[in-house]
Design a protein that fits this description.
327 residues
């Protein structure tokens, strides 16, 4: 389905066109109408399937429609208000808008890592470009004062990792009572990383009538149980019950010994000559050793792990994204 078929707000439509977005991905197509109708969603989707757009785009649309409704209400005369509301029934601006969305209210997106927080934050800014929609990105390892300032200036979207957000909440720098929708992105990873208690802590302080969206690679019992416990009634969306990986991704499994891994990795890189590649390790203390090994064998490489500061990690990612940077 094409984005143009959803009759989105003109600002959002223009931003999608500028980014060259025409066709929805399967997860976007199945989520859009549900989210636009203010329903809760539990979505099964891997990274690379357009998952971020599946919740950012309709939430930006809902905020834009809310602003349009507020402006229309102010411009209508008291005598015409009732008649106009009756005529407007079923129109997208009213159906999609948050009911009485106030300037101090916001959408909260919770993510497990700093890098994902930056990615979602960037998507919000891209899709809301030209609108009066601000986004604050909150995570540990970055300037506390800068984050306090961004919250103080007002944010329509707050994209955060749980730990730093709770710190700011305890200092009374953010009012969780003003959350109109909450998104848990990669919720299964958040559980695996030990954020379950933090998620529960935050949900206990967020209004019960908020919209609840959760996205996960595996909709396990714990994730759904937390959703139901806190009053959510999610529509379950599974883009493929048999295959959850991203489109155009091919998996291969090689059974090799630990000692064979280095030379096997080199042979794969030499055979396929990728323009860029990412090598993952189960252990963060192996990262620098692997990067050194690759560099010594002709592949420009840098490591990135939680042992580095956020500034160091950001520099590595910037070089990786840039032309002629790290392989």
């Amino acid at each position: 389905m094409k984005f143009s078929e959803y009759d989105l707000h003109p600002i959002l439509t223009k931003n999608l066109e500028n980014k060259g977005f025409e066709e929805c991905t399967p997860i976007q197509e199945q989520c859009f109408e549900v989210i636009l109708k203010n329903k809760d969603v539990a979505g099964l989707a891997q990274t690379g399937t357009g998952k971020t757009g599946a919740f950012v785009i309709p939430l930006v649309e809902r905020v834009l429609r809310s602003r349009a409704e507020a402006e229309e209400t102010l411009n209508r005369s008291a005598e015409a208000a009732t008649e106009s509301a009756e005529v407007a029934k079923g129109v997208n601006s009213q159906v999609r808008a948050f009911n009485d969305f106030k300037s101090n209210q916001f959408i909260l997106v919770l993510v497990p890592t700093r890098e994902l927080a930056e990615q979602v934050h960037t998507n919000v800014l891209d899709f809301a470009k030209g609108a009066d929609i601000n986004s604050a990105v909150i995570y540990g390892g970055a300037s506390y004062e800068k984050q306090k300032k961004s919250l103080g200036q007002g944010a329509t979207f707050v994209v955060a990792t749980p730990g730093r957000l709770i710190d700011l909440y305890k200092e009374h720098l953010i009012d969780l009572g003003q959350v109109r929708a909450v998104v848990f992105d990669e919720a299964d990873r958040m559980f695996d990383m030990g954020f379950k208690d933090d998620m529960r802590y935050l949900l206990q302080r967020i209004p019960k009538d908020r919209q609840f969206l959760v996205f996960s690679a595996t909709l396990n019992f714990d994730v759904l149980n937390v959703a139901y416990e806190f009053g959510a009634d999610p529509v379950e969306v599974n883009v493929s019950k048999d295959e959850t990986k991203a489109e155009n991704v091919e998996d291969r499994l090689f059974h090799i010994s630990k000692d064979e891994k280095p030379k096997f990795l080199l042979s794969l890189l030499q055979k396929h000559q990728p323009r860029q590649a990412i090598v993952f390790s189960n252990f963060k203390r192996n990262i620098d050793r692997i990067a050194y090994f690759l560099s010594e064998n002709g592949f420009k490489a840098q490591g990135i792990s939680s042992l580095m500061s956020q500034a160091q990690r950001q520099r590595v990612m910037d070089q990786f994204r840039g032309e002629g940077g790290t392989n």
